[in-house]
TrEMBL record:
SUPFAM superfamilies linked to this entry: P-loop containing nucleoside triphosphate hydrolases (SSF52540)
GO biological process, one term: L-amino acid transport
Cross-referenced Pfam families: ABC_tran
Keywords tagged on the record: Amino-acid transport, ATP-binding, Cell membrane, Membrane, Nucleotide-binding, Transport
Keyword Cell wall biogenesis/degradation: no
UniProt name for this protein: ABC transporter ATP-binding protein
């Protein structure tokens, strides 16, 4: 495994059990500060479990999860969130009965929403401005995903964890998300992105880690993986072909 010069998040030897199942089996993962790290791997490899373990939603049974220099393994989820990590789960967590405005208002935990920051978000998610006073439940899947991501970034966070944001979305919306994640990164938020859609993440990722059977089996730069068809085939196999 390569040494990252400046990791904002670092997992070493992380094991997670879910009930009787041993899911993460010694995960070593470095997330360089200021970049977009993409976590790839087939269904069931352990990507979601990795994000949930970072957030403290599953407790690591062994190993270290170091965020901004402090071991957060074993800490409670609200504590981990307050340290500056936001999480967008795969299920697009929005309050359907509440308006877009109310959804974002509830996510702004440290005070009133910052209007300049909202305008910045509307710049890459204009639909949110358009449907500001509509119930989030009435929006399309792509627009709900925008609400979920906007909730996570309505305040400045150090690290954004996002689980398969493009799942089921139309190509035009995927382009929106590419622009959004680029802007979030430019605004000094580090991103750890779980995806199966390689054509999406090859345009975004700086570094890449590939998981299989609860372990990281490859780490490197996205540029290197994107340029190497044989490596893609070997590491991603059918999951890559399925998205071409
Ligand atoms: N609540 C649970 N109880 C038992 N096993 C679980 C639970 N959640 C996940 N698993 C198992 O853990 C393994 C890893 O699942 P995980 O969701 O982390 O994979 P993933 O890489 O995110 O896959 P996907 O792309 O399908 O979401 C799978 O074998 C899954 O069946």
């Amino acid at each position: 495994m390569r040494e990252a010069p400046d990791s904002l998040l670092s997992l070493s030897g992380v094991h997670t059990h879910i009930g009787e199942y041993h899911i993460l089996q010694g995960v070593d993962l470095e997330v360089p500060r200021g970049g977009i790290t993409v976590l790839l791997g087939r269904n069931g490899a352990g990507k979601t479990t990795t994000l949930r373990t970072i957030m403290g939603l599953w407790k690591a049974s062994q190993g270290r999860v170091v965020f901004a220099g402090q071991d957060i393994a074993g800490k409670a989820t609200p504590d981990i969130a307050r340290r500056g990590i936001a999480y967008v789960p795969e299920s697009m967590a929005v309050f359907s009965d509440l308006t877009v405005r109310e959804n974002l208002h509830l996510a702004a935990i440290s005070g009133p929403m910052d209007t300049a920051r909202l305008e910045w978000i509307f710049g890459f998610f204009p639909a949110l401005k358009k449907f500001w006073n509509y119930p989030a439940g009435n929006l399309s899947g792509g627009q709900k995903q925008m609400v979920a991501i906007a909730r996570a970034i309505v305040e400045q966070r150090q690290l954004l964890l996002v689980d398969e944001p493009t799942k089921g979305l139309a190509p035009a919306i995927v382009q929106n998300l590419i622009e959004a994640f680029r802007q979030v990164k430019e605004n000094s938020t580090t991103i750890l992105l779980v995806e199966q859609n390689f054509n999406f993440v090859r345009q975004l990722g700086d570094t890449v880690a590939v998981m299989d059977d609860g372990r990281i089996v490859h780490t490197g730069t996205m540029a290197e993986l994107a340029a190497d068809d044989a490596l893609q085939q070997r590491l991603l196999g059918l999951s890559l072909a399925a998205h071409q």
